[in-house]
Amino acid sequence: xxxxxxxxxxxxxxxxxxxxxxxxxxxxxxxxxxxxxxxxxxxxxxxxxxxxxxxxxxxxxxxxxxxxxxxxxxxxxxxxxxxxxxxxxxxxxxxxxxxxxxxxxxxxxxxxxxxxxxxxxxxxxxxxxxxxxxxxxxxxxxxxxxxxxxxxxxxxxxxxxxxxxxxxxxxxxxxxxxxxxxxxxxxxxxxxxxxxxxxxxxxxxxxxxxxxxxxxxxxxxxxxxxxxxxxxxxxxxxxxxxxxxxxxxxxxxxxxxxxxxxxxxxxxxxxxxxxxxxxxxxxxxxxxxxxxxxxxxxxxxxxxxxxxxxxxxxxxxxxxxxxxxxxxxxxxxxxxxxxxxxxxxxxxxxxxxxxxxxxxxxxxxxxxxxxxxxxxxxxxxxxxxxxxxxxxxxxxxxxxxxxxxxxxxx
Length: 410
Hints:
- The protein is mainly alpha-helical.
- The chain has a single domain (24-201, 216-404), classed as Up-down Bundle (Growth Hormone, Chain: A).
- It has helices at residues 22-44, 50-57, 61-89, 91-110, 115-129, 134-142, 145-177, 180-200, 216-221, 224-254, 259-284, 289-314, 318-344, 351-375, 382-401; strands at 9-11, 17-19.
- The protein has a two-stranded antiparallel ribbon with strand order 1-2.
- Strand 1 and strand 2 form a beta hairpin.
- The radius of gyration is 20 Å and the shape is globular.
- It starts with 8 loop residues before the first strand and ends in a 9-residue tail after the last helix.
- The model is unreliable at 1-17 and 405-410 (pLDDT under 50).
């Protein structure tokens, strides 16, 4: 046994460290799932509280929507630093430091009395949440081959389940305790994750081939295959995230749904992640990652065309938004795990930096795209449909830029 930068482990055939023992393996999986929950929580649970936040800080609801995009950009800023550092000084210390910063940010939001102060502490929370990218590096450390992609599919499916239930939880918290409750619960979950990390994770000392240097990004930024697969993941995620940001504007604003009705719609939407995860699991050992990505892009483009035609023919409706979004999200769930695995597989000795840059591109692209879409409030959901079509076309071009011989079966 060795003390790795992850859970207690045994040395695998490829030199990576793997979890030892069934109990510890399951506990490691639980930790990864909780990290996934913590990443979804500040983005989705808060959605039903948009009107309350708007009233609290006396700003337009669109300004509150921008806070979610702002949060995503803040996460991206932090991740660009976290990855290389984790390769040098270990995952555990950085993860615990990030969790502590995110707790400070969440508590600051609770006690904010002005919109500007609230936004500043949201940025602090986002910078702390940047450490959650280490979950991807831990997957790279702990698993190999089909197990690695299977774990990412599990986490993506779990993310969908959390997405589907988060607005319902947010509606309950908003109705029972007010908007501050979502930040309070975030603090509690972050504290639990910190405790589990202290118990389960072990750091390794820095080594020469894992120096905490930003220079590791240079090779990745010159790597066409790595960039193409990272951007594929980013495009797919941007489609999902843009809907998350504008959903309160569209469903609670223009369609005048209550917070409870809004949360019920999201249950159906989130279930698409589970359906997509089941499809990705089925395809994982049967077809190449390239085929999975192609299928996902086809679904995203189909969703965009359907959204545009439906609004033109029948006008705006809950069903006309929900059904295309379910198709789009199923496509996103096919694209992201396969594309991410292919990108990170190119740098197994720099998993932290590779995961960091990959997720930075993911959140930066999603944050910027969603802010543009939110600015087209009067043109929704047509703007969303155009985004899906353009994203799928760009994704097809990126896929064509990759080398077939570089595509490894997950």
